[in-house]
Amino acid sequence: MVKIYCTRRKKKNPTNQRIEVFLKKHGALQTKRYGYSEIKRVTNCFRNKLGQGGFGSVYKGILQDGRYVAVKILNELKDDGEEFINEVASISRTSHINIVTLLGFCCDGSKRALVYEFMCNGSLEKLICQENDLITHHQLDYQMLYHIAIGVARGLEYLHKGCNTRILHFDIKPHNILLDENFNPKISDFGLAKICSRKESMVSIFGARGTAGYIAPEVFSRNFGVVSHKSDVYSYGMMILEMIGGKKNTITGLDPSSEIYFPDWIYNRIESKQELGLQNMRNISDEKLVRKMAIVGLWCIQTHPSVRPAISKVLEMLESKVELLQIPPKPVLSSPSTSPIHLSSETL
């Protein structure tokens, strides 16, 4: 009797296969591909950690030509490679002053990394989480916050209208807005992005994507309308309100039970033409600037997408006089008693 011995062939990781198929299909990518040993050399064996998130960790590095970079090391086998593919596919198509530049990537076995230009002033979130000490420590006043708001809107307009394909970000929030040495903002983190035709007015996505507190109502429930570029506008509006409101979109009095949801508070103030009286407001010019940003933010967070302005209209409103802006309807979901969404750093 002859015995037949079969050797088991090692199965290829389906995630790596999927990524390699994508990279082969898009062989003409402008970004450099690094080996993992090169990534270790660039980051000096991951010595300088900049931050950490659900995706993995970010380290500071330096290229051979002397440029500083931020290297995002993605968690191994965390998903089917979709986040990595989304990031490389979407951001490699972009070139704009308000979009962070992807300089390279690594896909070496199970090791995945993304190499970005380094932004020395970190994220917008770190600045607005300084308990309103923005001016003292960072020379940031409302004029600078307005400058940042304009820059982010221009970056979004480019993603929605300036590319050959429309790119929806789906995770606009202060944490994903990076600031260079002159506090110019750049949109980053395209892991949840969706690439679609410029002619598409609605987008098909499976499940909700984004960060709690910034997700448009229609993204987690189609009863509110279709998912589209207006979903990014909603996230942008929540971010603007957080920028002018401080650390959280709530205002707390002496009594903890008197906590007020900030969009409600600022809407009531604007509607009744009361002074806003926010911290760090120095003069009437600041008052007008904040009032304008608040009105635009409230337009952006309208419950139904059809009522929200497109991002190009948002830019137009931000660059016009506050006296010319109409007060929007009160957003239905703005009350904490009825809203399932509140600002937080908890990622779905």
Oligomeric organization of the protein chains:
single chain
- Largest β sheet strand count, sense and barrel closure: 6 strands, mixed
Overall pLDDT level = 81
Helix content percent band? 25-40%
* CATH architecture annotation of the largest domain: Orthogonal Bundle
pLDDT < 50 stretches: 1-10, 131-138, 250-258, 334-348
Number of separate helices: 11
What does this structure look like?
InterPro entries: Kinase-like_dom_sf, LRK10/LRL21-25-like, Prot_kinase_dom, Protein_kinase_ATP_BS, Ser/Thr_kinase_AS. It is a single-pass type I membrane protein. This protein is α+β, with helices and mostly antiparallel strands. The chain has 2 domains: 27-117, Phosphorylase Kinase, domain 1 (2-Layer Sandwich); 124-334, Transferase(Phosphotransferase), domain 1 (Orthogonal Bundle), CATH 1.10.510. The chain is built from 11 helices and 12 strands. The relative contact order is 0.11. Mean pLDDT is 81; it is low at 1-10, 131-138, 250-258 and 334-348.
